[in-house]
Amino acid sequence: MLIYVVNLERFFMLRKSIVVMALVAAFTMNVSAVQIEVPKWQPPVPGADASIPANAYENYSHINEKAIQEAEIFSAKVQKNVETPKIAIEKVFKEKTGLAQAVKLGEFSESTVILLHEGKQNIRLSVPNISLRGDTVESKSSDGPLFVVRGFTSILMVGPPHGKEFSKHMHNEGVYTYPDLENASWKILKAKTHMMYTEFTPKNTNTTYGITYLGGGDVKEPFQDTIAEVVMSNYIIPSIEPLSGLDHYSHVKHWDNFSYRIPKKAKLVSEALEDNKYEVRTYEDVGVKIRVLRFRIDPNIVDKSLAKKQIFSFLNKYGDLEAPTQYATVWNNGLPGFLVDRYKPNGESYLRHFIKDSEYYYSYRIDYDESKSPYKHKQLRDMVEYAGFDNAESLRKEPQWRVSDSHKKKLDADPIFNPWYMKWIEILTQ
Predict the structure, then answer these.
(1) Where in the chain are the domains?
(2) Which residues of 343-353 are buried (b: 16+ CB within 10 A; e: fewer)?
(3) In this structure, how many other beta carbons lie within 10 angstroms of the beta carbon of residue 95?
(4) 249-395 belongs to which CATH class?
(5) Which of the listed residues 40, 61, 206, 373 has the most CB atoms within 10 Å of its CB?
(6) Lowest-confidence range among 88-102, 202-216, 285-299, 357-371?
(7) pLDDT, tens digit, for every residue of 305-360?
(8) How far is CA 207 from CA 25, 33, 121, 201, 351, in A?
């Protein structure tokens, strides 16, 4: 009887996970396939798969079977350990069945978004991997800084063309064409670590970029189960787009050190101090309500912009655990924030980007109904992702860790994690 009960519980947990995955899949419709073309006599682009939708990158949730299993195990362990709750979070997990599993799945499934908008740079892209750490580094062979994001089994480097030393070890290379990209080329190394590099110039610009992506392809790893060339060819390259598209429907607003975007037709309806703590600007447009707020950082409290904190606070507050919610760490010019995206095509939807500088936390929130608004979901999400700081250069001098102090110390002391990461940075910045 005990075995039957356990198996029945696992069945319902798996069923719930499948429902979540199905709802997440609704974010992306197969409007067309990825079409990376090559000139005659050129080798095909490694990993390119015409069966994958060209807009697959718009889906920020990537949950594999291993991640589901890990979330189920975590949930069962939490429920067992919180029979007699000792701290506040244990009480919450005990009272809200399914919250622990939803939080863990959120951590596993988040994506990474990169925006560069300094100097001549004007570009965004995304990758279906978690962000653990970010670094801004100088390269001997590139014109300007390179922005690096480290995952559990992946490294993403973005900026001017780079990796000249690494090019000596490439196994193959070629050129390709893709809409809105010119002078596009690729190089690849296939060893224990798969690495792919692409270089391109967006149409109607004079700025050339280089992107390097490393992936291990370990199917046992819940954070990344796909090799580098598949991710590069079907997610990263299709996601590349200039930020100039934002100018068609939005403009930049400034709040002292902080800059953000709002729709051109949005009106400022109030500025207020709430709870004697939160400074709030409220904007309204047709079918859209925007709240931009800030409050001072308490250095004695764990960073509120971390993924786990944001996922837990959102799910705990709004409760609808099976709603299609997506998460992403968003890097603006090397500085991280965290995005929460709950989209309902014919109902009330919610977007939030939580970010910080050295003095304030900033929370940019949009409540909207796409069926009543002149803006599409992607337009509003692209706009919310954009953020800037006047002192960005000084803010990013130190590594930007996306995990709490205890996990940071553990990873920093790991004999493999950091040495492997720093060695690749050294190679790529030659």
Answers:
(1) 110-242+403-428, 249-395
(2) bbeeeebbbbb
(3) 10
(4) alpha beta
(5) 61
(6) 88-102
(7) 999 999 999 998 887 777 789 999 999 999 999 999 999 888 899 999 999 999 99
(8) 34, 27, 7, 6, 31
